[in-house]
Amino acid sequence: MGAVIVLVWGAVFVITGMRSSGFFMVTVGAVWGALLTVVVYLFLDKRFKLRHESSDRQSGQDEKREKQAKIFEKKQETYHAFLEKLRKIIQNGEIKVGVKTEDKNSGKMIDELRDFIFQLGYLQLYASEATIDGVSDGITSMIQILNDVHSGEKNRPVDLPNFYASLSRELFKIIAVLKADLHGKDTATITKDKMNDIFRECDLALDDKDFDSNEVQQYFWKELMEQLRLKDYIIEEKDFTRDVCDFYAASARNRHRGYGFTFDTGYKTIPFRVEMGNEYFYGFPRKEEGTAEVSNSQMKQWIHQTSKEFTSNSQWLGYRVPYYRHRLDFWKLNSVGFDSLKDLRKRQRYVKEIAQEIDSCIKEFIENAKNSEKTKIA
């Protein structure tokens, strides 16, 4: 636009100058030439700057792409190294911590935990927080699966089909998280059916049928009594086979309930009971006045101090259902706890947690009772 204005201006002056003296023409021509030179220079300079800026942008984009490509390559390398370290740990079945090698070099140590921690550190250099969380959850589950095998009963054979199914499921979850981080989209894992085909070829076919509710409930009663005995409670042996069969054989309205076991808390002959309704619950059964060392009213006070979740009625001074994680509705079979109870690797640990909850409740009750009696004496 500036060039056009200058040209128009020059043309006007030339036309005007044609009617003037030669000196005027020379002057106008000189001024016009100088201005035209400036305009051309500015025009060319602007073109040069635009080209230079475009070149800089292109160079910056190329540099950014090259940098991203190198990061992606390093990311892949780190993820592969991490999976390789995970493979070595899985292959020997445990994480060794500070173990001397059995070769001639007695001073050499194996510390897989230390190496694994560093691999997680390398992973954190490139992975997002969501990726680290997903990988960490998978690793925790895999380590627990390996620990379950080693901590199981010596006389009980390892449930290999479920072991490999659980292990592969967690491994594929980790790989899916890493792959999604690399390529920016979720990817499907290898399906359970395909893995079952592999297991069948290895004579490790999985049994996909629904779990046996009778067997699971009978195991629950037997294992719970055993775990409480390990905490020094005296509990008589009891067979719940008939009760459990009657429970599932009856209709919803008339089903068999009210069975369980009772034992002494170890304090003033106060009884404690675990009983079956629609789901199991526990608490302090009511006794006739005069048949216990402590009055029912005093008992209710101690129970209330222990937990406000206890409820009383004509049969119970206080009863409650367990905490959410330990609740088991044996009639509807829809409680979250059945995922652990029906799993041969997890069921013993799960029932042990239930026994711990009951034991903690009893101990807190006894502590409240003792503190109340001390206050009363004082």
Task: Please outline the helices and strands.
Layout: H1 2-17, H2 22-92, E1 99-100, E2 109-110, H3 112-126, H4 129-151, H5 160-183, H6 192-201, H7 213-229, H8 241-249, E3 260-264, E4 271-276, E5 280-285, H9 296-306, E6 316-320, H10 338-341, H11 347-377
Antiparallel strand pairs: 1-2, 3-4, 4-5, 5-6
Helix pairs in contact: 1-2, 2-3, 4-5, 5-6, 7-8, 7-11, 9-11
Q: Give the overall average pLDDT.
A: 79
The helix/strand series, from N terminus to C terminus, equals HHEEHHHHHHEEEHEHH
Q: What is the rounded distance between the termini?
A: 104 Å
SS field, number of helical segments? 11
- For the secondary structure, the number of strands is 6
Strand fraction band?
5-15%
The major β-sheet equals: 4 strands, antiparallel
Helix content: 55-70%
Structural class: alpha+beta
The coarse overall form would be elongated
Strands of the widest sheet, in order across it, are: 3-4-5-6
**Chain oligomer state:** single chain
Whole-angstrom Rg: 40 Å
Q: Give start-end ranges of low-pLDDT stretches.
A: none
